[in-house]
Amino acid sequence: MKAKSAKLRSAVRKAVIAVLLLAAFSAGYLLKSRLQATPAGSGPGEANQPAAPQKWYCSMDPQIIREGPGKCPLCGMALVPMPADLAVAGAPRQLVVSEEAAKLMEIETSLIERKFVAAEIRMVGKIDYDETRVKRIAAWVPGRIDRLYVDFKARRVNKANLKD
Questions:
Q1: Dist. CA 145–CA 147, nearest whole Å
Q2: Least confident of 20-24, 37-41, 52-56, 111-115
Q3: What is the three-class DSSP state of 159?
Q4: Residues 6 or more apart in contact with residue 152 via CB below 8 angstroms
């Protein structure tokens, strides 16, 4: 008789534990669905406030952002609704991306610091003089050129260039 009552108590305990686990899982599921249905930060006082306007952007030219649907002025494609996490009003030269996109792009940031740039650049080339600054004085001999109206090689000379 004691063995039957011990088995009965054990079965009752297992049944009670199973019912409690089932109740806990169903309560968690209901709370999760209720939290997902209610937007974050919306409480009883915030229900009367109007929602932020939906922004639309071009998938080919993401810099094109409009307040409503339409066509992109650059490529003519239809604008698509912008996800709420990307519709942050930033400065014109500010890059705003989601955390997932930043991880995919491998964006790294660092603090601004002032330091001297020490870079050595080796280049190949020729050093030549500026022909426009070359001046020569020749002795006066017959056939000497007194005035020269061009200041570097390979320049065409015509009557319009002469200033006299």
A1: 6
A2: 37-41
A3: helix
A4: 131, 132
